[in-house]
Amino acid sequence: MIEVDRLGRTFKVRGTVTHAVQDLSFGIEAGEFVGCLGPNGAGKSTTIKMLTGILAPTSGRLRVAGLDPSRRRTALAREIGVVFGQRTTLWWDLPLKDSFELVRLLYKVDRGVFRRRLDELCALLDIGDFLTTPVRQLSLGQRMQGDITAALLHDPPILILDEPTIGLDVVSKAGVRDFLRRLNAENGTTILLTTHDLGDIERLCRRVMLIDHGRLAFDGTVAGLRAIVPGEDSIEEVVTHLYLSSRRSPRTPPPRPAQDPPSVTA
Ligand SMILES: Nc1ncnc2c1ncn2[C@@H]1O[C@H](COP(=O)(O)OP(=O)(O)OP(=O)(O)O)[C@@H](O)[C@H]1O
């Protein structure tokens, strides 16, 4: 579903070069639920932007649903749903339902199919009460439910989310997580999300990737991630340890785990 091979993205701003993503390689199969962690500035959002075609890579190769994202954005849009936790894709001044209608027109979704899909998503995400509310008047949690609905109206096989639970209270977070879990388990939707919330990783993801300084520092199970620090059971402590060692010696990759996760690159 997703193939990333030696991907790189460099930014040059006023003579300063930033290697936001470097030599990044991984693959994601259909039906996987993958979480992506990494300290601030690690390159997660840049990776997501390349996967969704917003940014073109400066090196390497990637395919999403068999397509080169930055060259085939229109075709790709049918295959993926995208949610940015920090930015809405909805129309600020329009009622939520009008935003959905615009999405329907953009994606050329048949009216009957759209109706059924919207009814399903309304029930699952519990958004029926604020369909007529302008987006600017929605709470963050309601807006996120709206953004997730909009991303799924065309029923894409792949959902990519950049920090979908940021700023949500515990109940809203639980609702979003429950929905994503069901979407993956019952619909078989392939999901990739970035997050700083380790609860998202522990509760949702069978596989976790850790990006550090633009490189893949870990790719394996949550148990494999825990095993990096022998005797430490708390994933939060393990991740804190990794981020701190990364700050102390920015070019030093994190230590290998005590027991083998499915794959580790460092
Ligand atoms: N458009 C841009 N122009 C210049 N530099 C950029 C641009 N976008 C990202 N960067 C730089 O690339 C690096 C990676 O940024 P990115 O936003 O991908 O990190 P991130 O892992 O998503 O961080 P966070 O968790 O804080 O959101 C950072 O050093 C950032 O300053």
UniProtKB/TrEMBL annotation:
Positions of region (Disordered): 245-266
Location (main, coarse): membrane
Keywords, alphabetical: Antibiotic resistance, ATP-binding, Nucleotide-binding, Transport
Molecular function (Gene Ontology), one example: ATP binding
Ranges of biased composition (kind: Pro residues): 251-260
Membrane topology of this protein: Peripheral membrane protein
UniProt xrefs under SMART domains: AAA
Protein localization: Cell membrane
UniProt keyword Acetylation, yes or no: no
GO cellular component terms attached to this protein's record: plasma membrane
Domain ABC transporter: 2-238
Gene3D superfamilies: P-loop containing nucleotide triphosphate hydrolases
Biological processes annotated in GO: response to antibiotic
PANTHER family (alphabetical): ABC TRANSPORTER ATP-BINDING PROTEIN, ABC-TRANSPORT PROTEIN, ATP-BINDING COMPONENT
Record protein name field: ABC transporter domain-containing protein
